[in-house]
């Protein structure tokens, strides 16, 4: 009984006191080294009952603490192949600049050609009747194209992180994650499409003071239908890309978000042009077609909500993930207002073909970087949601682009892709005789300056924003990419409009090219 009492006193001490009291006597050393008091109950039958209960409670707490420490050490030693569990290799920590560039290059070019195709489509459809008669449709363009950043790229980032940390290793977990996330983006797409149409109506009505109910319902039906169908198609593509990339050993963060944009802009813009044109023609014959389209997609929303609530990760986003998506839609709509007022001027019609390209490239690159930083924070298990987080120094441009860490290395690689990529895309547009602008050396210089400035700002904001959100308990996968891609749309559209105004002022006015 005396030995048991001594052991209980020692185990009730904190860690430092326990270490100091170990070398006192050999008997006490033997007792403090034990981690399972109940296993030696046959040797301690003579102890008082209260002492045995107390010791068992302490031993149970010690075993739980040891188990936590053992799990932590196993997660930190993921390279140990002797364990039965399949370790998740911390891929971002071992990647070189060459491997990052090699994995990003093909999806980046594929996404870029997708934005070139979207630009060619916008260059053609800007002359269609629905775009000339209902010019507010231009305001919908960046907001709906931004859905790939608000929803699909966020979906890709969430699933990439889940795949990297082992949450999609079993078929049951994978399908549960897939169904929850698909239902979630359908809810978000319906709501964002509806709000984007309201923003387009407001932004179109305020400057002109002219409101037409038929055009407002047309914008609502076109926006909701486009957002719903495009999000469903792109969500399925994203899931296939992430599953395939994991099976072939490629980091999903490097390929998922660019491929989300490769077809995203083209599919969304083609759907918007086709649906809005069809519904515009129905205005002449049927007053009920547009309201019925709106009501149909809105009526499906409760079904998607019920499905999304079944998965814990999507349930959290369903309740708390609306702020970034809605604010990002508002930011993109401001870019749409700039596009509407610029493209509506015949002198700047050549801007339409380049808008999806500069916006898409900037959004793709910053989404890759944000997804990589978020995965880095998740895999290293850095502290999240501290009650009173200490003030963190804002990263400097030097640390963002010239630091020694893997995130600075990827920022340099992504920045170096900007100029060569845009030159390839400009040459592609020129060879296909797209646009209304001759590719003079002056235009190319202004265009590349705008693109480089846009990406530098976005990569720096990604470094700051993802870490800032993480230290305040917000999951960057759900919050950062919508803001960053929306800012990419606003910066890209604004800088491009500024370029065309400057070129007009200095005498580069060949607006007839492509007519």
Automatic annotation (TrEMBL):
<keyword id="KW-0812">Transmembrane</keyword>
<dbReference type="InterPro" id="IPR045349">
    <property type="entry name" value="SLC41A1-3"/>
</dbReference>
<feature type="transmembrane region" description="Helical">
    <location>
        <begin position="182"/>
        <end position="204"/>
    </location>
</feature>
<feature type="region of interest" description="Disordered">
    <location>
        <begin position="63"/>
        <end position="92"/>
    </location>
</feature>
<feature type="transmembrane region" description="Helical">
    <location>
        <begin position="411"/>
        <end position="429"/>
    </location>
</feature>
<protein>
    <recommendedName>
        <fullName>Solute carrier family 41 member</fullName>
    </recommendedName>
</protein>
<dbReference type="InterPro" id="IPR036739">
    <property type="entry name" value="SLC41_membr_dom_sf"/>
</dbReference>
<dbReference type="InterPro" id="IPR006667">
    <property type="entry name" value="SLC41_membr_dom"/>
</dbReference>
<feature type="compositionally biased region" description="Basic and acidic residues">
    <location>
        <begin position="39"/>
        <end position="49"/>
    </location>
</feature>
<feature type="domain" description="SLC41A/MgtE integral membrane">
    <location>
        <begin position="141"/>
        <end position="275"/>
    </location>
</feature>
<feature type="transmembrane region" description="Helical">
    <location>
        <begin position="255"/>
        <end position="276"/>
    </location>
</feature>
<dbReference type="GO" id="GO:0005886">
    <property type="term" value="C:plasma membrane"/>
</dbReference>
<keyword id="KW-0472">Membrane</keyword>
<comment type="function">
    <text>Acts as a magnesium transporter.</text>
</comment>
<keyword id="KW-0460">Magnesium</keyword>
<feature type="transmembrane region" description="Helical">
    <location>
        <begin position="216"/>
        <end position="243"/>
    </location>
</feature>
<dbReference type="GO" id="GO:0022890">
    <property type="term" value="F:inorganic cation transmembrane transporter activity"/>
</dbReference>
<feature type="transmembrane region" description="Helical">
    <location>
        <begin position="319"/>
        <end position="339"/>
    </location>
</feature>
<comment type="similarity">
    <text>Belongs to the SLC41A transporter family.</text>
</comment>
<keyword id="KW-1133">Transmembrane helix</keyword>
<feature type="compositionally biased region" description="Polar residues">
    <location>
        <begin position="1"/>
        <end position="24"/>
    </location>
</feature>
<feature type="region of interest" description="Disordered">
    <location>
        <begin position="1"/>
        <end position="49"/>
    </location>
</feature>
<feature type="transmembrane region" description="Helical">
    <location>
        <begin position="288"/>
        <end position="307"/>
    </location>
</feature>
<keyword id="KW-0813">Transport</keyword>
<dbReference type="Pfam" id="PF01769">
    <property type="entry name" value="MgtE"/>
</dbReference>
<dbReference type="GO" id="GO:0030001">
    <property type="term" value="P:metal ion transport"/>
</dbReference>
<keyword id="KW-0406">Ion transport</keyword>
<feature type="transmembrane region" description="Helical">
    <location>
        <begin position="441"/>
        <end position="461"/>
    </location>
</feature>
<feature type="transmembrane region" description="Helical">
    <location>
        <begin position="104"/>
        <end position="122"/>
    </location>
</feature>
<feature type="transmembrane region" description="Helical">
    <location>
        <begin position="481"/>
        <end position="506"/>
    </location>
</feature>
<feature type="domain" description="SLC41A/MgtE integral membrane">
    <location>
        <begin position="355"/>
        <end position="498"/>
    </location>
</feature>
<dbReference type="GO" id="GO:0008324">
    <property type="term" value="F:monoatomic cation transmembrane transporter activity"/>
</dbReference>
